[in-house]
């Protein structure tokens, strides 16, 4: 190639290839650029390195030629020198500081090139200057990978001596031994093994070197690997053994070698296939199959899908192999999991010779398979007429039906296999049989537009007006799907009735329009002299509606002359113009308007006009046509059932184009819907700034309030649309701005309330820029409360920075501070911020609850921890005398349990844990009643009394009873039960689940002072004292 391009090269390059050093020197003296590049981005030094001309290379380098330029493939002169084994040139380039780590487009260094070309001398020179002999290319290949792949024994020895890793993995985790085995380099295989290569190493697909050798058919390497101890049962990621791989690739010699080393012939892969399955299917697997059968392989083994080796021969038409299987006892009628035999599969794929063989070996030609289909069904489905003929000659039932009721004739008609169909018809098949959907073969041929099949069936007497379960005739289906129109034309000329109706009342005209079959529709119209496609006895959805909905203006032109009234309504009360306008079919809209379609007509459900629908669906051009052609200019402001105008719908959908059109048509911007929402409100909620500005320019009312008293600014703030807020406030006069910012809705909330309530910090920041907001007026549930409720730290910070730290003490109607709200909603960041601004820890709400009590009541242990760190008073009680500990013990949830344990960690005073509430219940009563075992244990350790009595006379132990009657029964039983002996207690201590102190309070007995210490607590009281 270089010689062919030599005439296009520079004189310097030509001199280099000519080997004339004097000419090179002369050209360089004449100022020829030594670094000039050709079309391949190569310079003279590339050519000299490739040629190996030491003197020329030396001259070029002395003339300031770049030592490591890259060509279009990123090869440097050093790459070329290594590729051509020019050691002297390599040494010279290295002396001149050539880049030894330079990489080509595949990230190969000169060392990789040297290894691939067996340039041992070059590699030796390179490694004197390189520290890393295991450098890899883009694929992760080391130089040893390249040497192993190319079979360079000498190079491999040299690299291994230089400590190149014999087990280095590339990016597919393949090692040099994999490549040597695959390429059949037996001497390299032995070398690598002797140098420590892992004989059973696996790549990413779990292939070992033995698999690689089996795949490439290298018998000698296979035998060497087996001698060296390779695992003959190793599995790939698909579960294939080396024997599977050899059979799949048709390498009989490798398979024989593996079998000689006792490789398992019955092993199955993840698909359940044995080597025999793969040998039966593979292109060159005949020898493998014969070998396996001689070794006693099971010819009836089934894979996961139930297929035997005979099935596999049927898939691929392996005729000779099927005979071998028969001779070794293969079950000819074995079925797979789909119910198919080998004959089914051979028939489906059209393997005539194999099908004949199977029939000769007495395969059952009438056996039902998948969906009850026989082999005859299968070959008709595949379209193989010769297979059909063979099976028919076997004497099968031509009219047998599958599970869906279809005969072979149905499938032939469905697939358009006219040869099979004619063969069946010539053998007197019943052309009138219907499937379970009531469809004959003629229906299927018509539905698929198979004219030849349809023609044959009609000639053979198939009823052209036969109706299926839905009432459809073949003409209905042809009108919908036969785009060429040949089937429609033939049917109407052979007594098919175009006006015959299906069960819903639709005719072939309806089907033709719905299928946009203009050609078929023309044939139908030409076949009927007078046609009426609407009326009281016809479906309300007319072909006119269908054409408008599809947007087919050509079909619409054919239909409009047939309709005296173009304003007929369908079941939803919509006219054809409604449907065309909603779908944006401009030509159809234009046609309908020209033919008298009215624009101001309302549909039957939403009472919308075509203008409403065009505005809603953003059909600008249709909308313009409708407004220009309207018989009533007031249509632009007409309202639907929800009192929405077209402008309201367009604004709500954000359809800017339609909004502009409607505003240019003088649409009113202040008409309100049933919720008293004008278009401005919808624009604000949608956040469309451009629409908002358009409406404001047209006189939108900024101060208007809806049914809830909200203005547009309330909604913009609640939605967090800063751009909408900016547009609204910039359009205000100073007086309007003051009113708008201070306006209260019917909840007494300002826009600032709603911005904080939804946590929109950017909106809050913008609103606070206005001096008109001087205080947090309005609803007592202040913006600070709202921000904390939404866990918005940013909003709280903005409010505190604007109004001062005093706002953290604001109270709502229930006397709750923001810190109470933080405790109730578990907002730890907000609570920490409020506490930094000196929020009162012990303020009480209208129920007397402090923030700590509120947090305990809700089971918010993170808030409790934050409050306890700030020394919140654990003695604080609410109006019912319940402390935080009472509330934590009052609910049997994991969160409340954690709260109780956290409070008890900070509580060591027995007076606190024994504080009674108004019902004289202590935390121990509540904990015991709710079954909080860890809390009960810790309460007792903190000195909780087990004998204190509540207002019902129950101790904590009796409080465990589910109702007062059970508690009374328990008390009676305990009063009459003799106490257990100390010996019994001492021998059963390990079986008790509660503390010894709790046991002692229930079972009291007179004991010695020593024994008393074992069973009594400090709160000892005898049964007789209490009862």
UniProtKB/TrEMBL annotation:
<dbReference type="Pfam" id="PF00023">
    <property type="entry name" value="Ank"/>
</dbReference>
<protein>
    <submittedName>
        <fullName>Uncharacterized protein</fullName>
    </submittedName>
</protein>
<keyword id="KW-0040">ANK repeat</keyword>
<dbReference type="InterPro" id="IPR036770">
    <property type="entry name" value="Ankyrin_rpt-contain_sf"/>
</dbReference>
<feature type="repeat" description="ANK">
    <location>
        <begin position="572"/>
        <end position="604"/>
    </location>
</feature>
<dbReference type="InterPro" id="IPR002110">
    <property type="entry name" value="Ankyrin_rpt"/>
</dbReference>
<dbReference type="Pfam" id="PF12796">
    <property type="entry name" value="Ank_2"/>
</dbReference>
<feature type="repeat" description="ANK">
    <location>
        <begin position="305"/>
        <end position="337"/>
    </location>
</feature>
<feature type="repeat" description="ANK">
    <location>
        <begin position="539"/>
        <end position="571"/>
    </location>
</feature>
<feature type="repeat" description="ANK">
    <location>
        <begin position="139"/>
        <end position="171"/>
    </location>
</feature>
<feature type="repeat" description="ANK">
    <location>
        <begin position="642"/>
        <end position="674"/>
    </location>
</feature>
<feature type="repeat" description="ANK">
    <location>
        <begin position="172"/>
        <end position="204"/>
    </location>
</feature>
<keyword id="KW-0677">Repeat</keyword>
<feature type="repeat" description="ANK">
    <location>
        <begin position="675"/>
        <end position="707"/>
    </location>
</feature>
<feature type="repeat" description="ANK">
    <location>
        <begin position="40"/>
        <end position="72"/>
    </location>
</feature>
<feature type="repeat" description="ANK">
    <location>
        <begin position="106"/>
        <end position="138"/>
    </location>
</feature>
<feature type="repeat" description="ANK">
    <location>
        <begin position="847"/>
        <end position="879"/>
    </location>
</feature>
<feature type="repeat" description="ANK">
    <location>
        <begin position="271"/>
        <end position="304"/>
    </location>
</feature>
<feature type="repeat" description="ANK">
    <location>
        <begin position="73"/>
        <end position="105"/>
    </location>
</feature>
<feature type="repeat" description="ANK">
    <location>
        <begin position="814"/>
        <end position="846"/>
    </location>
</feature>
<feature type="repeat" description="ANK">
    <location>
        <begin position="238"/>
        <end position="270"/>
    </location>
</feature>
<feature type="repeat" description="ANK">
    <location>
        <begin position="747"/>
        <end position="768"/>
    </location>
</feature>
<dbReference type="InterPro" id="IPR051165">
    <property type="entry name" value="Multifunctional_ANK_Repeat"/>
</dbReference>
<dbReference type="Pfam" id="PF13637">
    <property type="entry name" value="Ank_4"/>
</dbReference>
<feature type="repeat" description="ANK">
    <location>
        <begin position="470"/>
        <end position="503"/>
    </location>
</feature>
<feature type="repeat" description="ANK">
    <location>
        <begin position="404"/>
        <end position="436"/>
    </location>
</feature>
<feature type="repeat" description="ANK">
    <location>
        <begin position="437"/>
        <end position="469"/>
    </location>
</feature>
<feature type="repeat" description="ANK">
    <location>
        <begin position="371"/>
        <end position="403"/>
    </location>
</feature>
<feature type="repeat" description="ANK">
    <location>
        <begin position="919"/>
        <end position="951"/>
    </location>
</feature>
<feature type="repeat" description="ANK">
    <location>
        <begin position="205"/>
        <end position="237"/>
    </location>
</feature>
């Amino acid at each position: 190639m270089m010689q062919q391009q030599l005439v296009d090269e520079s004189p310097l390059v030509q001199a280099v290839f000519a080997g004339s050093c004097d000419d090179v020197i002369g050209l360089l003296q004449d100022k020829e650029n030594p670094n000039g590049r050709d079309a391949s981005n190569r310079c003279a030094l590339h050519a000299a390195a490739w040629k190996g001309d030491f003197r020329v290379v030396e001259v070029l380098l002395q003339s300031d030629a770049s030592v490591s330029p890259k060509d279009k493939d990123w090869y440097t002169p050093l790459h070329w020198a290594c590729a051509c084994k020019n050691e002297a040139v390599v040494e010279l380039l290295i002396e001149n500081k050539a880049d030894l780590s330079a990489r080509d487009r595949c990230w190969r260094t000169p060392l990789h090139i040297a290894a691939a070309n067996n340039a041992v001398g070059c590699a030796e020179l390179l490694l004197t200057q390189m520290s890393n002999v295991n450098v890899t290319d883009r694929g992760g290949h080391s130089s040893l990978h390249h040497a192993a792949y190319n079979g360079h024994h000498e190079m491999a020895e040299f690299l291994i001596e230089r400590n190149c890793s014999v087990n280095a993995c590339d990016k597919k985790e393949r090692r040099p031994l994999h490549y040597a085995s695959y390429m059949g380099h037996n001497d390299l295989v032995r070398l690598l093994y002797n140098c420590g290569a892992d004989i059973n190493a696996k790549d990413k697909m779990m292939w070992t070197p033995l698999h690689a050798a089996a795949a490439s058919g290298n018998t000698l390497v296979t035998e060497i690997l087996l001698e060296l101890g390779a695992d003959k049962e190793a599995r790939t990621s698909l579960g294939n053994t080396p024997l599977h791989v050899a059979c799949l690739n048709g390498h009989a010699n490798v398979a024989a070698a593996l079998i000689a080393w006792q490789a398992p012939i019955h092993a199955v892969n993840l698909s359940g296939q044995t080597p025999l399955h793969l040998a039966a299917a593979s292109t060159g697997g005949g020898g493998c199959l014969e070998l396996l059968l001689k070794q006693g392989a099971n010819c009836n083994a089934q894979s996961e899908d139930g297929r035997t080796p005979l099935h596999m021969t049927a898939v691929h038409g392996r005729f000779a192999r099927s005979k071998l299987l028969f001779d070794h006892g293969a079950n000819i009628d074995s079925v797979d999991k789909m119910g198919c035999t080998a004959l089914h599969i051979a028939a489906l794929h059209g393997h005539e010779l194999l099908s004949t063989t199977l029939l000769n070996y007495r395969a059952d030609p009438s056996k039902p398979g998948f969906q009850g289909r026989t082999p005859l069904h299968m070959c008709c489905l595949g379209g193989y007429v010769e297979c059909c003929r063979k099976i028919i000659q076997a004497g099968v039932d031509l009219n047998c039906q599958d599970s869906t009721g279809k005969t072979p004739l149905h499938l032939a008609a469905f697939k358009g296999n006219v040869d099979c169909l004619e063969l069946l018809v010539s053998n007197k098949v019943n052309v009138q049989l219907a499937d379970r959907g009531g469809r004959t073969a003629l229906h299927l041929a018509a539905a698929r537009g198979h004219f030849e099949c349809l023609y044959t069936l009609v000639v053979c007497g198939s009823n052209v007006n036969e109706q299926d379960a839905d009432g459809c005739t073949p003409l209905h289906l042809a009108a919908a799907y036969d785009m060429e129109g040949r089937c429609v034309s033939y049917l109407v000329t052979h007594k098919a009735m175009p006006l015959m109706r299906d069960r819903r009342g639709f005719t072939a005209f309806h089907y033709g329009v719905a299928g946009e079959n203009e050609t078929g529709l023309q044939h139908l119209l030409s076949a009927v002299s007078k046609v009426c496609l609407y009326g009281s006895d016809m479906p309300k959805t007319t072909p006119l509606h269908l054409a408008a909905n599809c947007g087919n203006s050509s079909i619409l032109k054919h239909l409009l002359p047939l309709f005296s009234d173009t304003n007929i309504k369908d079941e939803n009360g919509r006219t054809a113009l409604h449907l065309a306008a909603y779908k944006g079919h401009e030509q159809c809209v234009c046609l309908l308007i020209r033919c008298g379609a009215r624009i101001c007509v309302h549909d039957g459900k939403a009472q919308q006009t075509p203008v409403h629908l065009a505005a809603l669906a953003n059909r600008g051009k249709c909308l313009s046509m409708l407004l220009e052609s309207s018989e009533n200019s007031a249509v632009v402001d007409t309202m639907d059932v929800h009192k929405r105008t077209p402008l309201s719908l367009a604004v709500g959908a954000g359809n800017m184009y339609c909004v502009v059109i409607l505003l240019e048509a003088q649409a009113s911007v202040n008409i309100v819907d049933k919720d008293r929402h004008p278009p401005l409100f919808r624009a604000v909620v949608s956040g469309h700034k451009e629409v908002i500005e358009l409406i404001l320019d047209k006189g939108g009312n900024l101060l208007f309030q809806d049914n809830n008293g909200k203005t547009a600014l309330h909604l913009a703030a609640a939605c967090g649309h800063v751009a909408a807020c900016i547009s609204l406030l910039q359009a205000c006069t100073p007086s309007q701005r003051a009113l708008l910012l201070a306006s209260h809705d019917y909840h007494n909330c300002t826009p600032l309330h709603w911005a904080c309530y939804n946590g929109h910090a950017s909106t809050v920041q913008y609103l606070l820029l206005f001096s008109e907001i001087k205080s947090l007026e309005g609803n007592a549930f202040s913006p600070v409360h709202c921000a904390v409720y939404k866990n918005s730290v940013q909003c709280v910070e903005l409010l505190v920075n604007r109004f001062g730290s005093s706002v953290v003490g604001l109270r709502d109607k229930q006397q709750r501070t923001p810190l109470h709200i933080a405790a109730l909603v578990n907002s730890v960041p907000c609570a920490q911020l409020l506490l930094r601004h000196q929020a009162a820890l012990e303020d009480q709400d209208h129920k007397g609850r402090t923030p700590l009590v509120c947090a305990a009541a809700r089971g918010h242990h993170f808030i409790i921890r934050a409050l306890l760190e700030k020394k919140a008073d654990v003695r604080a009680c609410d109006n019912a005398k319940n402390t935080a500990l009472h509330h934590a013990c009052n609910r049997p949830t994991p969160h409340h349990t954690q709260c109780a344990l956290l409070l008890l960690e900070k509580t060591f005073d027995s007076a606190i844990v024994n504080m009674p509430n108004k019902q004289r219940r202590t935390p121990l009563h509540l904990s015991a009643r709710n079954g909080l075992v860890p809390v009960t244990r810790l309460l007792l350790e903190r000195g909780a009394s087990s004998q204190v009595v509540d207002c019902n006379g129950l101790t904590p132990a009796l409080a465990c009873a589910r109702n007062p009657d059970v508690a009374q029964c328990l008390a009676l039983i305990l009063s009459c039960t003799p106490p257990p002996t100390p010996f019994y207690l001492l021998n059963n201590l390990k079986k008790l689940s509660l503390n010894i102190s709790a046991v002692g309070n229930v079972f009291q007995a007179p004991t010695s002072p020593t024994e008393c210490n074992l069973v009594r607590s400090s709160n000892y009281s005898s049964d007789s004292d209490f009862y």
